[in-house]
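Hi there. Long-time user, first ticket. I'm pasting a complex I've been working with (about 330 residues overall). I'd like to know whether the download I got is complete or cut off, because the file seemed smaller than I expected. Thanks.
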Amino acid sequence: MNEKTIYTDTVKPEWTDYNGHLRDAFYMLIYSLATDAFMDRIGLDDTARRARNRSIFTLEAHINFLHEIKEGAKARVDAWVLGADAKRIHLYMEMFEGDNLQPISACEQMLLHVDTGSSPKSAPFDPDVANRINAMQDQRQQPRYAGRVIALPSASRESGAVRPA
Amino acid sequence: MNEKTIYTDTVKPEWTDYNGHLRDAFYMLIYSLATDAFMDRIGLDDTARRARNRSIFTLEAHINFLHEIKEGAKARVDAWVLGADAKRIHLYMEMFEGDNLQPISACEQMLLHVDTGSSPKSAPFDPDVANRINAMQDQRQQPRYAGRVIALPSASRESGAVRPA
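Hi, the file is complete. Here it is re-exported in full:
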């Protein structure tokens, strides 16, 4: 655990494949639950979302699967904000087994802030939320798996902070 | 349905959020089940995987969430192969509601062929499997959401077949 840890969980039997390993889609579920925890942290918990008619939609996600993890193992998600504008957050997460320092997976997501009123539409963050988002930005820490492109042969954005696996 | 349709499913209640919409991670589960169907189609069904000590691992995935879909709706996944080498497949999928022509989501994945013997390691496809993979390549059809990079402001690979959303 460290200040970046936003979520922990245990790999459930129903999340595994016939080998007893976490199925790819359930890495994404753990990240999805971690994103819920991220929303809580920036002041958009369920109560606030309902009271303010606000929500966060995932526009896009990129996942790297680095190592397997088995049923019953502890999973930990660390997260920080790579960037944000008035309505969007570029969130970066890494998943670890237990207290290990080498990630078993990484995920970046583009999140959109939405006004869920009668006609749902994108909306600027409220100032208190924007302040909490900014507090989770960390320019010092290099994202190990961000800005990646899926291609054969392996390609990546030239200008990005990319370290091919 | 068309020749590219590899999987259909119905949005289950336990896959939805409090609004009754499919949660982001369960788009990924539908793609994961579609990838199982893809494995069947290239001759790597469960029986063959066990008999040959072979499996397919997902190395990396990129998803675009374009539209919501509700509990009980029919989801359809079309797929084709964007590229392949001796051990890897660049698989592209789009998800549709019912028989609609506009996708509600897109997903590209990099898949690795693995020898699951005593010490698991990447391995070349057997010739019969390689032939089936090649038969699923389609250079004519332009992938609407491939080669994308997550970034603020929106960036994309300059040379790629990219149409920003």
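A couple of notes from our side: Residues 24-41 of chain A form the longest helix (18 residues). The two ends of chain A are 25 Å apart (CA to CA).
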